[in-house]
Amino acid sequence: MSKKAAAPSGRAPAAGKKVADASNKVAAPKKAAAPTKAAAPKKAAKKSASAKAVAKKTSVSGTPAKATVKNTSASREPAKAAARKPTPTPAKESAPAKKAVSTAVTPAKATPAKAASAKAAPTKITPAKPPRNESHTALVRRARRINRELGEVYPYVHPELDFENPFQLVVATVLSAQTTDLRVNQTTPALFGKYPTPEDLAAANPEEVEEILRPTGFFRAKTKSVIGLSKALRDDFGGEVPGRLEDLVKLPGVGRKTAFVVLGNAFGRPGITVDTHFQRLVRRWQWTDQTEPDKIEAAVGGLFPKSEWTMLSHHVIFHGRRICHARKPACGACPIAPLCPAYGEGETDPEKAQKLLKYEKGGFPGQRLNPPQSYLDAGGIPAPPLGATIPSASAPGAPAPGAPAPASAGPAPGSPAREAG
């Protein structure tokens, strides 16, 4: 009976072993599941983040976010399937939007840089040459724009002959032929000081007048002209200068150019002064291809209102004397270079071109001994009297301080007064 009782006791351990094994088998998954549960939240968090991103991207497809989370918590495969499931259409639509934003922002940042580089490099001038078959309307617009630009460059334009009345102006204009206004202005004070009226000059001794006018050149012919026109004024017009073109051109030595100078500056009546500078510049600008003064006057006059003719003449002549010279234009320092079809005929280097500027643009004295106040306010320097010292000695090529200007000799080569007109 003890053996039988022992048997059950012997089996009990076996059963206990089985129970223990079973408990071990049950416990093993718990130990193995522990790290799984610990790692699951991290993976689930990552997958849930991706699921939320997928849910946002796949809102078009209509897949709910909760279903995606369950699939990712169950296994990795559904997560991969969910990642592959969204259609690529929304992603492609959003990509161009980002590119569009970037391209829209880029030019705004690049524009100031381009503008700054353009200001920093003034040497690159690209003049707009007019087409070969330029219409009359386009020519009018271009010509008037050039005149406006010159008006801003030379707001102080004025006739560059000293005069106090129409008689002095008509005589000075006759004397300015084949010489400079500077030389005339240095000569007329002695002439008008001795012969202030037409009656006085008409009765003058020609030899005495010739001696006074000698510095202007061609003094014998000019003496004959000024004495002749003085006699005509005395005998035909009561000692007064007429204010009509047809009367002025009847005076000895007075042509259309001289007549328009007198009409525009002494009487305020519009006129175009076609001198050598005016002829040269209007052909360079391709306003006309005419070579005769009368035809140039008619062609250019048709491009502008009559009220602008006098100031237009001043603008063009001022520019021709200071920058757009006959032999070597200062293209690199020209303010209207982008509008000039002849850009490049002269010096295009800005530093070299700056040295070619004349009169107030180059720091030299002007042509008038008594210029208008507006010219002085703009930095202009009065011209010295005949035989006096030149006040501006700091400008390139100017005489040293205290050096007298020659009384009878012509201007030195390279000086501002060398060019005729």
What is this entry, summarized?
With 421 residues, the protein is an all-alpha fold.
Structural features:
421 residues, mainly alpha, 17 helices, 0% strand, globular, disordered C terminus
Folded structure, characterized:
The chain has helices at residues 2-57, 65-74, 76-84, 89-120, 136-153, 166-175, 181-194, 198-202, 206-213, 219-236, 245-248, 256-266, 276-284, 293-301, 309-322, 350-354, 373-377. α1 (2-57) packs antiparallel against α2 and α6 crosses α7. It is mostly helical and 421 residues long. The protein is globular, with a radius of gyration of 48 Å. Helices cover 56% and strands 0% of the residues.
Element-level helix/strand string? HHHHHHHHHHHHHHHHH
The proportion of strand residues reads under 5%
Radius of gyration over alpha carbons?
48 Å
Question: Roughly how much helix do the residues carry, as a percent range?
Answer: 55-70%
Average residue pLDDT: 76
So how many helices? 17
Taking the sheet with the most strands, its summary is: none
- Unreliable runs, pLDDT <50, ≥5 residues? 1-83, 85-122, 392-421
- Please state the structural category: mainly alpha
Give the N-terminus to C-terminus distance in angstroms: 157 Å
Shape: globular
State the oligomer. Answer: single chain
Quick one: how many beta strands?
A: 0
